[in-house]
């Protein structure tokens, strides 16, 4: 097995463990909503510390339900992943193109130098 394959398999196993372990170990069972987002937790902490707190800004758009909010978040994550994948693919393609151009240039130089030697009669 190649080194990169081993690293990828290890990273995949680590990501799977991070997703499954909190559920398997029952983390958050003592809470009403065990896996709420940090926004909700921050809001709860702020109202406990400062009940009269008034937010500075209000949201531009308030989704009508939690499902729509989750869908918009997933869409945002997918778009971000797409942009990152495009960027890394573009970088890899450019690097491969530069390597091929360099190899072609070197092969052409070798062919040209071989033709020069045969034309002069030197071997």
TrEMBL record:
The keyword Transmembrane helix applies. It is a multi-pass membrane protein. Pathway: Cofactor biosynthesis; adenosylcobalamin biosynthesis. The chain crosses the membrane at residues 71-90. Residues 94-123 are annotated as: Disordered. PANTHER family: COBALT TRANSPORT PROTEIN CBIN. The keyword Signal applies. Part of the energy-coupling factor (ECF) transporter complex CbiMNOQ involved in cobalt import. One of its GO terms (molecular function) is cobalt ion transmembrane transporter activity. Residues 1-24 form the signal peptide. One of its GO terms (biological process) is cobalamin biosynthetic process. Belongs to the CbiN family. NCBIfam families: cbiN, PRK02898.1. This is Cobalt transport protein CbiN. It comes from Streptomyces qinglanensis. It is found in: Cell membrane. InterPro entries: CbiN (IPR003705). Forms an energy-coupling factor (ECF) transporter complex composed of an ATP-binding protein (A component, CbiO), a transmembrane protein (T component, CbiQ) and 2 possible substrate-capture proteins (S components, CbiM and CbiN) of unknown stoichimetry.
């Amino acid at each position: 097995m190649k080194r990169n394959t081993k690293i990828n398999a290890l990273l995949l196993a680590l990501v799977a463990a991070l997703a499954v372990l909190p559920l398997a170990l029952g983390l958050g069972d003592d809470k009403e909503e065990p896996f709420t987002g940090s926004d909700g937790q921050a809001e709860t902490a702020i109202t406990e510390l400062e009940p009269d707190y008034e937010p500075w800004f209000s949201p531009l758009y308030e989704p009508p339900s939690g499902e729509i909010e989750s869908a918009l978040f997933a869409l945002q994550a997918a778009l971000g992943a797409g942009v990152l994948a495009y960027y890394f693919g573009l970088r890899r393609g450019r690097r491969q193109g530069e390597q091929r151009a360099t190899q072609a240039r070197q092969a052409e130089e070798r062919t040209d130098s071989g033709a020069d030697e045969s034309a002069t009669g030197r071997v």
